[in-house]
């Protein structure tokens, strides 16, 4: 054969191979393993030698799993979808990406699951971007002090336990003492502000979540709220990642320079979900069978809530914890108290006495305090707290003695009126000017001559008339300006005239 013709044939072969490769789509290299066992929300997978922790895996049926354990011969995976269609022997594929969720304006007014998928029966939405569920908390140098109040509309909290934008305030108490009610009222009070609210339900019954959504809709607070539901019926893996996903949704707005409020309801169930996963994955148990890093999973979650220096945005966290028998020294409550900037403790004893909200002021504290409180509150809040604390002690003491001096009787009667003023129904949020008026009235003894049965009508009358009576001073209070001494006296005189006129 002619050498030239041989070279020509070889050239033709190479040319045909090159054209064939160019005409085909690029090859996709996928690393795959096999499921060895599956059950109770977890799976073990063999193979995948290059997989990394927190990587997302995809199974044959399209469901997802999160890599958690990296052992020598197999990996432990947290299932993020139902396991009915996953069997031992099925293939598992690497995605080479971490778990992310959709964020942005499209989620407002929607109910989504822990993966950001809509579960409210409405049309699917198109999110602007996706962010990782696990993100680093902002460095200390990127944070600024908490100095702007987040008004909850609850008089006891705003006056005595003020919460600032960027703060982390724990709500804890026994079952059925009104913890969720405080959180929902706090969201409702943001309806006329620029604050974006996120309600994260962990381990709740679906009926409870539906009730929360209904309450928000009735009070016109749902359009600026995202509800993320990881109910008790979903895989435990979704319950575990739910608070991190909700935090990522809030961080998007915080990084845009906006203010967000996030409710974790509640982290007791989150801790139990993590304990269940850890035991199934055969991680060493510690105190109360919780794994050793139980503190870390909540610390890294709550440290992401802060007030940013560069953008000026903030994210305020109100985590909820359920106690047993008022034991705030238990393992999980102690952990959360040490992480957060204060706590609001709800007492079942007060709840049974129909003192609502059932906040035990003596066991509650806000470590930010007056730094995030409007100046007008300081006229009355310090004196109010002292008077109420003395009243609680004297009331307990008076049960053992029938003979009390005039000063003690006066303090007890004043305390009863303070308690009546602080009593507040759910959904009945009180704005700043009305709160200031009620505080000034009770601390200056304007209700001392009224019967206890007249306190509530007097408070309603005052709330209905105070803004029109104060005029420009109401604007001054809302804008955070300090009232001069003569203005304080004028407010007291206006309130006295209102009470004298009506009662």
TrEMBL record:
SUPFAM superfamilies: C-terminal domain of alpha and beta subunits of F1 ATP synthase (SSF47917), N-terminal domain of alpha and beta subunits of F1 ATP synthase (SSF50615), P-loop containing nucleoside triphosphate hydrolases (SSF52540). Residues 373-497 form the ATP synthase alpha subunit C-terminal domain. It is an enzyme of class 7 (translocase). Residues 28-95 form the ATPase F1/V1/A1 complex alpha/beta subunit N-terminal domain. It is found in: Cell membrane; Membrane. Its main location: membrane. Its EC number is 7.1.2.2. Residues 153-366 form the ATPase F1/V1/A1 complex alpha/beta subunit nucleotide-binding domain. Keywords: ATP synthesis, ATP-binding, Cell membrane, CF(1), Hydrogen ion transport, Ion transport, Membrane, Nucleotide-binding, Translocase, Transport. The record marks 364 as: Required for activity. The keyword Glycosyltransferase does not apply. GO terms for molecular function: ADP binding; ATP binding; proton-transporting ATP synthase activity, rotational mechanism. It catalyses: ATP + H2O + 4 H(+)(in) = ADP + phosphate + 5 H(+)(out). Pfam families: ATP-synt_ab (PF00006), ATP-synt_ab_C (PF00306), ATP-synt_ab_N (PF02874). InterPro entries: ATP_synth_asu-like_sf (IPR023366), ATP_synth_asu_C (IPR000793), ATP_synth_asu_C_sf (IPR038376), ATP_synth_F1_a_nt-bd_dom (IPR033732), ATP_synth_F1_asu (IPR005294), ATPase_a/bsu_AS (IPR020003), ATPase_F1/V1/A1_a/bsu_N (IPR004100), ATPase_F1/V1/A1_a/bsu_N_sf (IPR036121). PROSITE patterns: ATPASE_ALPHA_BETA (PS00152). Belongs to the ATPase alpha/beta chains family. F-type ATPases have 2 components, CF(1) - the catalytic core - and CF(0) - the membrane proton channel. CF(1) has five subunits: alpha(3), beta(3), gamma(1), delta(1), epsilon(1). CF(0) has four main subunits: a(1), b(1), b'(1) and c(9-12). Produces ATP from ADP in the presence of a proton gradient across the membrane. The alpha chain is a regulatory subunit. This is ATP synthase subunit alpha.
């Amino acid at each position: 054969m002619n050498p030239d013709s041989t070279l020509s044939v070889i050239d033709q072969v190479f040319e045909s191979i090159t054209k064939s490769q160019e005409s085909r789509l690029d090859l996709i290299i996928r690393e795959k393993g096999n499921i060895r066992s599956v059950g109770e929300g977890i799976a073990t997978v063999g193979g995948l030698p290059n997989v990394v922790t927190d990587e997302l895996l995809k199974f044959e049926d399209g469901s997802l799993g999160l890599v958690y354990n990296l052992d020598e011969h197999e990996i432990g995976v947290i299932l993020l979808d139902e396991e009915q269609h996953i069997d031992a022997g099925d293939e598992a594929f690497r995605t080479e990406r971490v778990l992310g969720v959709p964020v942005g304006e499209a989620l407002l007014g929607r109910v989504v699951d822990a993966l950001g998928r809509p579960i409210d029966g409405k049309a699917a939405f198109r999110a602007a971007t996706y962010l990782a569920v696990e993100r680093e908390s902002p460095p200390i140098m990127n944070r600024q002090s908490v100095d702007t109040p987040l008004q909850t509309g609850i008089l006891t909290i705003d006056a005595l336990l003020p919460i600032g934008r960027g703060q982390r305030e724990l709500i804890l108490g026994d079952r059925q003492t009104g913890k969720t009610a405080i959180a929902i009222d706090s969201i409702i009070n943001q309806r006329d502000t620029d604050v974006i609210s996120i309600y994260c339900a962990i381990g709740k019954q679906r009926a409870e979540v539906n009730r929360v959504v209904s309450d928000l809709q009735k009070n016109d607070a749902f359009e600026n709220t995202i509800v993320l539901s990881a109910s008790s019926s979903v895989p435990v893996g979704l319950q575990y990642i739910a608070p991190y996903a909700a935090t990522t949704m809030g961080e998007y707005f915080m990084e845009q320079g906006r203010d967000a409020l996030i409710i974790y309801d509640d982290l007791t169930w989150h801790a139990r979900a993590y304990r269940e996963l850890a035991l199934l994955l055969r991680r060493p148990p510690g105190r109360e069978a919780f794994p050793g890093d139980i503190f870390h999973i909540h610390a890294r979650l709550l440290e992401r809530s802060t007030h940013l220096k560069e953008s000026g945005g903030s994210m305020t966290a109100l985590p909820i914890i359920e106690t047993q028998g008022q034991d705030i020294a238990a393992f999980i409550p102690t952990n959360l108290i040490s992480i957060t900037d204060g706590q609001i403790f709800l007492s079942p004893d007060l709840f049974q006495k129909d003192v609502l909200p059932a906040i035990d002021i003596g066991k509650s504290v806000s470590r930010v305090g007056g730094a995030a409180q409007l100046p007008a509150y300081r006229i009355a809040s310090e004196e109010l707290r002292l008077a109420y604390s003395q009243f609680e002690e004297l009331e307990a003491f008076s049960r053992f003695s029938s003979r009390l001096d005039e000063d003690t009787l006066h303090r007890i009667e004043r305390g009863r009126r303070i308690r009546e003023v602080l009593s507040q129904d759910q959904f009945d949020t009180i704005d700043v000017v009305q709160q200031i008026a009620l505080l000034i009235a009770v601390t200056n003894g304007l209700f001392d001559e009224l019967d206890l049965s007249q306190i509530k009508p007097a408070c309603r009358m005052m709330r209905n008339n105070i803004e029109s009576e104060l005029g420009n001073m109401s604007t001054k209070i809302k804008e955070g300006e300090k009232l001069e001494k003569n203005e304080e006296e004028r407010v007291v005189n206006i309130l006295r005239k209102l009470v004298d006129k009506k009662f």
